[in-house]
Amino acid sequence: MEPGVIKKLDKVVVNRIAAGEIIQKPANALKELIENSLDAKATQIQVTVKSGGLKLLQIQDNGTGIRREDLPIVCERFTTSKLTKFEDLSNIGTFGFRGEALASISHVAHLSIQTKTANESCGYKASYEDGMMKGTPKASAGNQGTIITVEDLFYNMPQRRQCLKSPAEEMQKICDVISKYAVHNSSVAFTLKKYGEPPILRTTGRRTRDCNIADIYGTQIGRSLLPVELEDDVHKFKFTALVTNVDYSEKRGIMLLFINHRLVDSSALKAAVDSVYSTYLPKGMHPFTYVSLEITPTHVDVNVHPTKHEVHFLYEDEIIDKIKRRIELKLLGSNTSRTFYKQLRLPGISNPDMENNENEASLKNLDKERLDKDRVRTDSKEQKLDKFLLQKPIPNQDVNSSNSTSFTHIEDESFKINTSRKSDVLLTSIKQMQEHVERRVNVMLRKILKDLVFVGIVNQTYALFQYDTKLYLCNTSKFCEELFYQRLIFEFQNLPHIQLETPLNIRELVRIALECDEAGWSPEDGDKMELADSACKILIEKAPIMREYFSLRINEEGLLEALPSILPQHYPCSTHLPMYILRLATEVDWESEVECFETFCRETAQFYALTSVLEIESMPQRHNWLVEHVLYPSFKRYLLPPNHLKQQLFELTNLSQLYKVFERC
């Protein structure tokens, strides 16, 4: 058989195929047009529909309008005012950005646009077909804003038109779209009406979201709404929701989900919300939920679906888990006002009390059948690893009277922490460093850290923790180094400082460091005092940078007055301070902005992650408390682990493997 001839499709065919992906039904077309009106800052939007949008779909707004010069190309593909280069997608803040909505509609319907801007003395009207304007724009009277009229939708696509539902069902879908946008955009007045009939939906633009929900979806839902809010600095999102309490339920659940003000769907989030309500609602019943999620634009990929009905975003599992917990907490707090209905038992029906007893018995049997290897330890306070280790007596310290809580308020007397008001980071280099940290995060490792349960300390470097049924050995020092590096970046210019009661001479600190073998000094390097003077001069010159951005304070006399406080109740080891000061002068690249911040943060992170054997032996319980109650909780809360940290985490065993060993024995 001869192979088929590959040929380039006609431009009209290509555009109609593309239009079929964007405009699937009248409700899709309306959604695109509403988003255009909202992007134009409209405060009044009126929609008129005939035959479910197939005969007529008209949207009128009072937005900024379209310039007369732009009318010839407004319906061409990939024409937009929302972005100019691909990188703009990472910070897109508007609804439309593909430049395909009006073009797609013009390929499957008769389209006309009447518009007027504030700077023009009159309006203009133009008609379009297959992406091209017919004739020239004609002057017309009208108010500021735009009127877009779509007639005979899918007139040239009979197969698509035949597959659509009845006009009544398509009208219901249109009403659903407008209802959702009217709830979220409560400051915008929406009106929906059938052609030649009174409005069937109207909002004033002066009511709150819960009032609009009550007006549109019913007063029963309006009376049952509970506000839920959450703002998270770790994953950089803001969550606002209105959910029904446990007294309300319906067979067909309704979820209004807006991510960065864009109407989308999320099966994962819907499943998480349903799982929370499954504890309270009868089987097969669902709640009403309105959810608004605002995420940092750099964490969201909006360009994943032609109709933009779904988006992908970073840390999806972690964000959904936090939302789920917050909703569950809200429902628990509102559980005191539940209403129950009891149905009388009809003759011939078995005794419900007997059925309850049988259910309780079955639950007990089910609990017995649960395998021991599947039981997970969830509370680190139940039993510590220290119980199984031989404790050495500590001189001048009562071991029996000490416990972890006694160290909660311990502070080094030579340190005093000062905090200052937070300020916004404006430097592009720091923002790029933050984005780099977020991009290279290992999601699985982040999940392990988020749910870890601390077990115990092995030695100065390693500690044990449990995740699920697995036991891990973790290199605490390496994880600390990455944690301190990230906190320096994300708290840039906002770090509190640790005030030294007695300022230290940095020239003397450098001289002490040069005496150490670690410095690697040799006679060829020059006189130690001259090297110390040179290092002191560099640090005094760069002191304003360290003071402004990292809260490390060196005065004009060369005295070290303060160090940055990276984690609460954590202080750097004074033993390694001289070497740290020397490395700031010799290892930090002070010439390039990005390299300067990068090397300074790395050197500081290494210094803060170091510990002293002498300090650990003198105050072992203080060190153990610090690791368990400060460092590992900080791993859970802050650390975004990169891939290379996988090499510092070792899975020792898991319960299923242990039980296999016991079974053989």
Automatic annotation (TrEMBL):
Keywords: DNA damage, DNA repair, Nucleus. GO terms for molecular function: ATP binding; ATP hydrolysis activity; ATP-dependent DNA damage sensor activity; mismatched DNA binding. This is DNA mismatch repair protein Mlh1. SUPFAM superfamilies: ATPase domain of HSP90 chaperone/DNA topoisomerase II/histidine kinase, Ribosomal protein S5 domain 2-like. The gene is LOC105228073. It is found in: Nucleus. Belongs to the DNA mismatch repair MutL/HexB family. It comes from Bactrocera dorsalis. One of its GO terms (biological process) is mismatch repair. Residues 213-332 form the DNA mismatch repair protein S5 domain. GO terms for cellular component: MutLalpha complex. Signal peptide: none annotated.
